[in-house]
Amino acid sequence: MSHSMDHHYMQGTYDFALVAFSYIVAVVASFTVLDLVDRISSSRGWHRWGWLAFGSAAMGLGVWSMHFVGMLAFSLPVPVAYDMVTVVLSVVAVVLGSFIALFIVGKKKIGWKQLLSGGFLLASGISAMHYVGMDAMQIHITYKPLYFAISILIAVVASIVALWLSLYFSSGKDRWRRWKKLGSGLVMGAAVVGMHYTGMYAAEFHTIGMDESSGAMLDQKLLAYVIAGVTLVTLGLSLVGIYISNRFTSKESELEVSEKWYKSLFENNQDGIIAVDLDYRIIGFNEAACELVGVKGDALHNQKVDFIFPMIVEEEREYTQQKFLASLSGVLQRYETALYHQDGRRVELSVINAPVELNGEVVGNYIIARDITEDKRSKEKIQHQAHHDELTGLPNRRRFNQILDEQIRSSTSPFAIMVLDIDRFKMINDSLGHTYGDIFLQEVSSRIQKVVEGSKVTLSRMGGDEFTLLCHDSFDQHSTSVLAESIIRQISLPYRLKDNDFYVTASIGIAVYPIDGEDAVELLQNADTAMYEVKKNGKNGCRFYSRELNEQLQEKIGLEADLRRAIEQEELFLYYQPQIRSIDSRMIGVEALVRWNHPDKGVISPGVFIPIAEETGLIYSLGSWVLREACHQMKAWHDAGGPLIPVSVNLSSQQFHQENLAEYIIAILEETGLDAQYLELEITESMMMDPVVSKDILDKLTDLGVRISLDDFGTGYSSLSYLKQLPIHKLKIDRSFISDIVKNTNDKAIVATIISMAQHLNMDVVAEGIETQEQLDILTHNDCQKIQGYYYSKPLPAADVENAFFVPQRNLGRLG
Ligand code: C2E
Ligand code: CA
Ligand code: CA
Predict the structure, then answer these.
(1) How far apart, in Å, are the Cα atoms of 338 and each of 87, 295, 309, 311, 317?
(2) Among 141, 166, 195, 208, residue whose Cα is nearest residue 38
(3) HSE-up of 25 (CA within 13 Å, CB side)?
(4) Edge-to-edge strand order for the sheet containing 457-463?
């Protein structure tokens, strides 16, 4: 930049149409560049170099033509010639700068460093182009340093911003992208133009030193429009080119991408996949398929599908082949099969045969197979657990019902089912604990299994200590009883638990299809009824269900409901049976015996309804009614001058163990006004299982002053020493000894022993059930004077007792 001594500067003028045109060129060029960076960064190999060359040429050319048009828009008062070599040089500079800049930023990922150096290179290219281009003017130019610097700065900032914008847009994919690109094209165009005109402003054109002789003289305006026009067309074409190539390559890569996706799906699939064509040739397979059958990949290669069929387990082979062929007719097949793996294990498969269609025609199919061995195994395990008892491994209730249902559905002849219940299992469970209870049940289960081994019987455990058996063979009364009895025998053998031998027994009820029930529920219920009947009659045995049993049961159920109302409806009443002293036939006591006058069934005996009352808990209210009524009657007799004798009242076991029994008896005595000494309570041996507890209760009762009588004596097993410790006033010899006493010398001996023992222990003795003179004679001969029995009197209504036994006091009326 030289300054001449005489300051002869020329003032230039601008053609504004061309200025605007130059701006348009700059914008289009910028826009093209933004698009190109995108292309370059997404291309590979020689494509990339091509785009790079093309891009830098387009960009360089664009920037250059903008510059040149800008130059031409400026006219000086004198014509200016251009040095063509320098013009070409300026083009080279800008194209080179663009190339390097695009090379740097046209990568997938770039950092700030690349961006800045790329921007600087681009800016130097543009600046070099501008000032070299100016130098082509054959006129002396000097530059104002400030504006010169500003123009360079603008070039740098504009380049960096432009590159940054292009990178910014190459990532992200929104639908405003094109518009944003255009916007940044406008900004960048403005920057390039700004740089140019700032540079122009920096220039001072000198009049002296003009060299008009050399260099080309150009028709400025025409030239400018030609250059700008050609550039625009070139750039426009390149934009179209980019657009088309974009569309084309993106479609191409979409296909490529989706193919890759499918390939990955195929190769990495956990299911084994084999592609088979119409000639049954294996044309593709994945790793999982090889693993499934246990062969190396090359073993499947070029094989026919027949290679696989022999591996299918024999029973499924034909079916599998059929399914495979069916899919080739175009219908997808889904089924389960199994094959033998090369290492010998059986692999369960879930298979899909999917036909492959091309233009509506089946060209082959995919065999997609999944290993479901584990699934199947765990399903079977769950199935097994759902249908079997954990403790014994036997079928459970659910399974038994299923099998029974099946048997009913398919049976052509009668068959039997048995319900077995262990007697006294609760005792083992309670005294040894659940662990031993479980061991015991397992032992029971294996004993039954041993007995039924070899015969067609389904044994199952219904829960607790209840087992059921289904005999699949046609019913036969004899063999069924034999089977039941041998089971009972096996169960009754001792069990060694905790170093002790334990003895249990079992009760079995048997029901026969179809006579004892036409469905599973009815059959089981009736077998149950039969089993309970065994329990009721002393357990340890078996019995067949019968209609009568059921009728009894039904009746019992009916009675239970009626009994609940009987007390309120005053259907209960008492009979009194006198106890007579044989020497003078005087009444020395009475036993109160309850009766029930049922509205439909007439008078019912206590042997029928007392057990029901005991089972249902009604015994408490029934028992207290009896007590109150008996005390009341005896008090009335005493008050009316009757004999001062006690009344005996039977206590059931539940009453005996009732809490505050003593208090409750006091209350009744007070209420009725009867003196305690005139009340006698009859209890049985069986109520006194636990001597400590019973002594306690009995002590409390005798403290009240009431008397205790031991009923049905001789039927239990109480030892004599044990009786000695208890406050018992009276023994009642059971009727069963009396009835045979005339013929049975054994019974006679027992009775004699009881009598002498009682005398020894200072107890009263009463003989029950004396019906004949002979019986009476034997007893009196054995020193038993007190007699209760039909011989003297049946149980009687209170009035009849008065009439028949209150003989001396004839004036007594009906009382009570
Ligand atoms: P138990 O206490 O042994 O009563 C004697 C039973 O023998 C009475 O039967 C009586 O009628 C009967 N009997 C008496 N002498 C003879 C005889 O010479 N020959 C025959 N064959 N039988 C005779 P009943 O009244 O049917 O009572 C049966 C059982 O019912 C009683 O046996 C007793 O255990 C129970 N019972 C009766 N009333 C009550 C009561 O109020 N409460 C309780 N808990 N049980 C009662
Ligand atoms: Ca009695
Ligand atoms: Ca008795």
Answers:
(1) 83, 16, 11, 9, 9
(2) 166
(3) 32
(4) 457-463, 466-471, 415-423, 505-513, 541-544
Residue 724: CATH number of its domain = 3.20.20.450
Same domain, 349 and 461: no
Number of domains into which the chain is organized:
4
**Residue 489 confidence (pLDDT):** 93
pTM: 0.48
pLDDT tens, residue by residue, 138-196: 788 888 888 888 888 888 888 788 777 777 766 555 567 677 777 777 877 887 788 88
**What CATH number corresponds to the domain at position 340?**
3.30.450.20
Q: Which residues of 517-535 are buried (b: 16+ CB within 10 A; e: fewer)?
A: beebeebbbbbbbbbbbbe
Residue 415 CA neighbour count, 13 Å, CB half:
24
DSSP designation for 489: H
Instruction: Answer yes or no: is 782 within a domain.
Output: no
Q: How confident is the model at residue 217 (pLDDT cuts 50, 70, 90)?
A: low
Digit-coded pLDDT (tens) for 701-752: 999 999 999 999 887 666 666 778 889 999 999 999 999 899 998 889 989 9
Q: Whose CA is nearest to atom 37 of ligand 1?
A: 593
Q: How many CA atoms lie less than 13 Å away from 56 in the CB half-sphere? A: 26
CA of 593 to the centre of ligand 2 (A): 8
> Are 159 and 108 within one domain?
yes
Choosing from 377, 407, 431, the residue where a domain stops is: 377
Position 624 pLDDT exceeds 90 = yes
CA of 592 to the centre of ligand 1 (A): 9
Q: 352 and 464, same structural domain?
A: no
Domain with 426, as residue range(s), is 388-545
Q: Is residue 253 part of a domain?
A: no
**413 assigned to some structural domain:** yes
- Report CA(710)–ligand 3 centroid distance (Å): 9
The residue among 248, 280, 314 that closes a domain is 248
196 in Cβ contact with 63 (< 8 Å): no
DSSP 793: -
Instruction: Supply the residue whose CA is at minimum distance from atom 11 of ligand 1.
Output: 795
